[in-house]
Amino acid sequence: xxxxxxxxxYIARKFALSIAAxxxxxxxxxxxxxxxxxxxxxxxxxxxxxxxxVLLTLLRLPAFAEIALVFAxxxxxxxxxxxxxxxxxxxxxxxxxMSVWQFLAPGLMVALALGLFAVTVYNxxxxxxxxxxxxxxxxxxxxxxxxxxxxxxxxxxxxxxDGQWILNARSTAQQGLTLGGLMALQYDxxxxxxxxxxxxxxxxxxxxxQLSDAWVSRPGARAQFYKSYLIxxxxxxxxxxxxxxxxxxxxxxxxxxxxxRIERAGLSAKRFRVQYxxxxxxxxxxxxxxxxxxxxxxRAFRFGRIQAMVMVGLVAGFGYFxxxxxxxxxxxxxxxxxxxxxxxxxxMGCFMSLTAxxxxxxx
Length: 363
Description:
Number of strands: 6
Oligomer: single chain
Number of domains: 2
Structural class: alpha+beta
């Protein structure tokens, strides 16, 4: 007689250790790649110490690692099941009358628990670290472009009683409320150039931008330096956040109120709604990764070609990630509702994996 509770704990521990090892490998690789990029930026635009580069990389790491969690669960599932198969433990379980669903259940529970922890605990911490990293990046690398924006930087246009302003920032922080490396061009109501302002930083206040260390250049006059300079604006904080803010620096718990504020201001909050639904679906997404990984690893040692099956699983996981990202982009663009964009890929992955498992196990 098999003690199912002890066996379930044993299998769950195997899954948890394999997923943790795969996640650690992903984290190390992400850290090294991002560290080299930040180090390059520091050498080009600043003279910061190596310890500051390490700190900034560590602050950015949790948000990047959150994306890698899906791949860690997939690869960890494949490794765990291959180990159980190589030691003939799966064969013994089958001989004792256990079905595939019984020895996959602990892995699914581990994935669901990990997903709940990632959404409710890890995501808020990662969002706070990401927001802090954006702020530090803007303050230190104020001349450089933001790694989170396009090569041309972030652009804003605003109209006022004096004419039109065009703002370009090399970097952003605090969801776009603080701009670094600002260039502002003013045109009058007849669309004639009035002045250009280059400032170290700009912070949005109620009804105006507060610029620091600003150089003001006007046609036919020498450039003048102002320690502090103000530009009137009709833009609200909600409008700027919606235009320049990054969804990854807003935690799961703050997203509902953030969405409500944006929509109350009459703006679209599609990308934030998609992000919220995506986080809600994450526990089930990780469970789908367990099912997907099991389709290529349960029968590997009995039929050979282990390396080929593992590659098929990894390619399938990468293809599924592309499908998820494509669905997310459709939701952000407004083509599909946010709920559909977040949950349809999860349902599709679940149905396809279950179909493959039923065909393998029950013919």
